[in-house]
Amino acid sequence: MSAPLLQVQGLRSGYGAVEVLRGVDLEVRPGEIVALLGSNGAGKTTFNHTVSALVAARAGSVRFDGRDITRAHYRSVVGAGLIQVPEGRRIFPNLSVLENLELGSFTRARHHRAANLERVFSIFPRLKERTRQMAGTMSGGEQQMLAIGRGLMGEPRLLILDEPSLGLSPLLVEELFGLIGRLHAEGLAILLVEQNVAQSLEIAQRAYVMENGAIQFSGSSAELLATDRLRQAYLGV
C-alpha cells in the first residue's frame, strides 16, 4: 500500500475560545477519492481551512507527501499542490472567466498556463465559449465549473472539493459527480467534502463521517453503507 499523500493526525483548531476540531485523524492516498461527510456545522469547512493553512492548527499535525505543513504559509501549501475549491465557489464576480482561470495559476504552474487552460476548456467547453463573460453573470452551475477549473489551473496533486453540489439542480449534481469520476480516472487524488452522503459513497473508495468536530465513522464506502446508525442518520433507511 502506498504512503499517504495527505496525513492528518490529532488535528485541533477553532476560532477564538471555540474549539471546532477535536482530534481529527484522516488520510488520503495518491489517486484516491476520499469523502468527508457530515451535516452542516459538523466542522468540515474548518477542517479544510486548517489543512489548507487558512486557519491555524492548535494541536496535531498535517503532512503532505511526507512533509510537515502544519504551520506552513497557505501559499506554500498551494505551491506543494494541495489546492482547495472552496464552499460557495468564491469566484471573482467582476472579473472575466479567463481572468478567474488565470488567477488559479498565480502561485503554482504559471509556466504551464496555456496548456492547463486548454485542459480546462476540454473538460468544460462552456467556459471556453464564455472567456470574456463576467463571472458574476453566470449560472450557479457554470460558476461551479469555473471554480473547479480555477483549481485545476494550479495542477493539484490533491484537490479538496468543499460542498461542490451545494445549490445545484439534481441534473447538474449528476454531471458534477461524473466530472469528479473523470478526474479520478486521470489519477487525481480528491478529498470530497459533502453533505450529499448517498452520491459521495457511490464514488469514493473510503469515507469519514464527522460530527461535532470529530470523526465518528470511517472505512470503505461499502462498510459505511452497511452501518445502521449512518444509514438511519444520513440516508433515512
From TrEMBL:
InterPro entries: AAA+_ATPase, ABC_transporter-like_ATP-bd, ABC_transporter-like_CS, BCAA_Transport_ATP-bd_LivF, P-loop_NTPase
Positions of the ABC transporter domain: 6-237
Sorted UniProt keywords: Amino-acid transport, ATP-binding, Cell membrane, Membrane, Nucleotide-binding, Transport
GO molecular function: ATP binding
Family per record: Belongs to the ABC transporter superfamily.
Full protein name: ABC transporter ATP-binding protein
Native organism: Ramlibacter pallidus
